[in-house]
Write a structure and sequence with these properties.
CATH superfamily: Holliday junction resolvase RusA
Distance between the termini: 20 Å
Order of helices and strands: EHHEHHEEH
CATH class: Alpha Beta
Strand order of the largest sheet: 1-4-2-3
CATH architecture: 2-Layer Sandwich
CATH topology: 60s Ribosomal Protein L30, Chain: A
Structural class: alpha+beta
Number of strands: 4
């Protein structure tokens, strides 16, 4: 099992054209984002995991400045969760794209994903990667 944290505000995958990745600011930001996730992962993972994999990803978003003190407290206690863009599936795609050839050879190996969006004073992404066990598959 591998656990690691990337201290970056979560972002969703960006659609890019061949030319667009060189000229569009959002595409450049996304490439930097994926690069940081990949760099942090490569410090923990020496070679790609083989076989079926499960991934747990927790995305922690900054608490909005417009929140009242009461709302901030509820957000920290996970009683208010982000229901804003980017969609969680796009966030997952960004992480998966970053981890290809580092954590696994291809993201088609990922057979189970558990993911959540939370608020925090410390925006980040927490990632756990492990082999999917026979017991989990048959449960």
């Amino acid at each position: 099992m591998v656990n690691f944290e990337v201290n970056i505000e979560p972002m969703g995958a960006v659609r890019m054209t061949g030319r667009g990745k060189f000229v569009k600011e959002a595409a450049q930001r996304y490439l930097s984002y994926k690069g940081l996730i990949g760099n942090v992962a490569s410090l923990k993972i020496k070679e790609p995991i083989e076989g079926p994999i499960k991934v747990i990803i927790n995305f922690f978003y900054p608490i909005p400045k417009r929140f009242t003190k009461a709302q901030k407290l509820l957000a920290v206690k996970r009683m208010i969760v982000p229901t804003v863009k980017p969609d969680i599936d796009n966030c997952i795609k960004g992480v998966f794209d970053a981890l290809n050839k580092i954590a696994w050879n291809d993201d088609n190996q990922v057979a189970r994903v558990i993911s959540s969006k939370w608020y925090s004073d410390n925006p980040r992404i927490e990632i756990t990667i492990d082999h999917l066990t026979f017991e989990e598959v048959t449960a």
